[in-house]
Every structure is written in structure tokens, then in C-alpha cells.
Amino acid sequence: MYRFLLSRQWVILTLVALVLIPVMIELGFWQFHRHERRVAQNALIADNLAAKPVPVEELTSPGHTVPRADYWRHVTATGTFDTAHEVVVRRRVSKDERVGFHVLTPLVLRDGKVVMVNRGWIPTADDQRAYPDVPPAPRGEVTVTGRLMADETTGASGIKDLKGLPDRQVMLIDSRQQAQLLGRAVVGGYIQQTAPEAAGGTPEQISDPDHDSIGAHMAYAIQWWLFTAGVPVGWVILVRREKRDREAAARASDEAEETPEPAGATA
User: Fold this and answer.
1) d(Cα 136, Cα 81) in Å, to the nearest integer?
2) Domains of the chain: which residue ranges?
3) Which residues contact 166 (CB under 8 A, 6 or more apart)?
4) Which of 32, 119, 243, 259 could be cross-linked to 221 through a Cys-Cys bond (beta carbons 3.0 to 4.6 Å apart)?
5) Residue 267's pLDDT is what?
6) Do the Cβ atoms of 191 and 118 come closer than 8 Å?
């Protein structure tokens, strides 16, 4: 009755179904784990943004790699801006998705070490190879508050660290790279400045990271698992339909053989 399942067509169809089931289960778990990571990251961001600011020296030092647990922690740093060694970071977008620069200024701490401060976004100049008109940093000693961020890498950001850029322009915010340019100790990571606000609102300070949305990863996971359940159900439906069609064809053939020939049909 089910010998048709041994046909080449049905063997291939069954094998495809057997391959699809674990693949779609795995894709469902992949989306589920992405959902879990997003939820955990949102909780981490919310907790770190709500934490009381601490001196940046408590969380990082020269050569230190900022761990994920400290991302977005509010820190303070007191020192003097070294605008002579200020650089701009290319291809950065504003709150309204305009492409421009981030202004990266060294802040020389009281002990002589340096922390890099991302003062915010400015628009590009007409000539992108020219150094843009950067709003001046405050003079004298200043206390900066901001979010602690890890050094950027191509692997994590997807931004290529291009060579041969115009003077005082960089692609990535990297404390080790800046330490080589400055010739002095630079603490690991950098600060996204949130206070004090810049005069006239420029540079435009970077907004808090989104920590409310969780994306559609859970919906995608459920969708993949529903597809997984649909494979065996669909296979059974096709088998039953094939069996029914073959039985109907067999009955029609039997009826045709049993129908007597009309009289006078032969000589």
C-alpha cells in the first residue's frame, strides 16, 4: 500500500524533509539566543546608565580592555583638553542619520595620563579631505561626565581602518592608536561625553543607546519552529494524498477491466 515511498521521488522528498527539520530547529534556537542576548544587553545598558558615575580611573587604565560589563557605565574625568592633538572620526551619523564626523579630543588627567573623549557629532565640510571646522573645547580644567566605551575594532564595528587618510582624521576610536600618535599613556576605551553640554549645542552629543526595543527575534524563533512542525505534517498530508490518488487510479483501472464489451463489438 505504501510501496510508493520507496520510489526515487519519495525517497528524495523524505530525505529533504529529514534535513529541514533539524536545520529549522537550529535556526529557531539561533533567533531565540539572539533574543536572549538582546534582553540581557538591554538590562545591562539600563543598569549601567542608572549607576552612579565613578572616576574613569576606577574602571580603566593604559592598555586596559574595557569588559562588556562596564560598557555604558557613567564615569567622570577631570583634566585639560589637548585640542592640538584633537582628531575627527570619519563616517559617523547624527541623530537624524546625517553623515559627518565625531570629534575625539584628548583629555589630559591630573596625573598626566590621557583619556580620549568623544565630544559629539559635527557635519562634514565641503571638502571631506580638509579638516572640518570643529567647535572649540572648553579651556582650563574641566570635569567631563560620559559613558565609558570600549575601543573600536574592525571586527566589532564592521568599519575598515583605512590607511592614507587626511591629517587628523581616523576611522576608528582606538586608545592604543591614539597612544602611538600622542606618545603618552592613554587609558583603554574612551568616554562618550554627556556633560557639560557644548555651547550652542555643537558638537551634537550622542544619544543614549536604545535599550527598550528587543527586535523580532522571538517572533522569528517561533516562526522557524512552526515551520519545523509543518514539515512532518505536510509530509503526512502528501503521503495520504498520494495513497488516495493511487487507490482511486487503481479502482478506475479495475472498473475499466470489469466493464463488458458491447454486443457486436467483434466480428
Assistant:
1) 10
2) 1-50+219-245, 53-201
3) 129, 130, 131
4) 32
5) 47
6) yes
